Amino acid sequence: MSDKSRYVQVLAWASMLFLSILPNVLYQELTGKTGEWLFIAKIALLTLLLWVTFFWAPAHKLRDFFLIFTALYLVEESFFRLGLWDQWQVWFSRQDFVSNMLGSQLLRLGTGLAMLAAMLGLGFKRRDFFFSRGQLDAPSSRMPIFGFSEASTWKRLGPALVLYMGLAMLAMLWIFSRPGLPAFQAILPLLPWILLFATTNAFGEEMLYRSALLAPTHKVLGGEQAILLTATFFGIGHYYGVPYGITGVFLAGFFGWVLGRAMLETRGFFWPWMIHMVTDVVIYSFLAMGAVTAGGF
């Protein structure tokens, strides 16, 4: 690896870690405060990084990466502020699963659509950020952990991962929460909502944290590095998710690695979205039961 390539990798990884929620987590865990000033600090950092790309040759290759990160930040902050709007709180203030999730998933759908528009506005074609069905039977590399010790195709691997990841999430959440049969029966009327919310959440997260970030990195860093970088960012972003803490970071990071492989190898959105959606169906089913909560069990 040349020195320039090494500098690009180090800059990409260091930037991702500083721009992730890692500083927010550390600040909150150490001080008990939310550190709202970190948003401004990260925008300032992005501004500096974009400026550096015009004057330092190795950084030039990461200009699109920093531009997309800036768009992602502005999109997420805008919809976060919308969620804090008094009228929005009135509309979705009822303390029940559907009302709470409807408010949050409208925001998640909005962020996904806004990021889609931002990518197109930045000059990316849909194929550049994998927003197409992709090649559903594309060749797949080995995944021994799932029993695919030899190269296969996504026609075989895709359905297997949908099943394995869904069952793995079901087993984990059941072990931690142990809901009884009546709890499962009680959520049957909510299944249409659960499917809708899983669909919108999977779309939004795949657009924001996989599609948009793989687009500017896989050609610069190489496929494996790009997948690892985006998976790490995705994992750190789930520190306060389900499950909570370091466990959640590692599990979400592994999940992000699988989804990144699916997107890059098929050059499309379908398999990562499908795997993600089915896993979210399991999570939202447990949320509907009240068996788990975001930020813990």
List keywords for this structure.
297 residues; mainly alpha; two-stranded antiparallel sheet; 2 strands
How does this structure look, described?
The chain is mainly α. It has one domain (3-289). The chain is 73% helix and 1% strand. It has helices spanning 3-19, 22-31, 37-52, 57-60, 63-84, 86-91, 97-121, 154-177, 181-186, 191-221, 223-236, 245-266, 270-289, and strands at residues 139-140, 152-153. A two-stranded antiparallel sheet has the order 1-2. α7 (97-121) runs parallel beside α10, α10 packs across α11 (223-236) and α10 (191-221) crosses α12. The longest helix is centred in the C-terminal third of the chain and has 31 residues, at 191-221. It is globular and about 65 Å long. The relative contact order is 0.12.
Strand order of the largest sheet: 1-2
Poorly predicted regions: none
- In terms of DSSP E residues, the strand content is under 5%
Strand tally is 2
Mind summarizing the main beta sheet?
2 strands, antiparallel
Shape: globular
The number of distinct helices, counting runs of at least 4 residues, comes to 13
Radius of gyration: 19 Å
Task: Please provide the ordered H/E string of secondary-structure elements.
Answer: HHHHHHHEEHHHHHH
Q: Calculate the mean pLDDT score and round it.
A: 92
Separation, N- and C-terminal Cα atoms: 44 Å
Outline the fold blueprint.
Blueprint: H1 3-19, H2 22-31, H3 37-52, H4 57-60, H5 63-84, H6 86-91, H7 97-121, E1 139-140, E2 152-153, H8 154-177, H9 181-186, H10 191-221, H11 223-236, H12 245-266, H13 270-289
Antiparallel strand pairs: 1-2
Helix pairs in contact: 3-5, 5-7, 5-10, 7-10, 8-13, 10-11, 10-12, 10-13, 11-12, 12-13
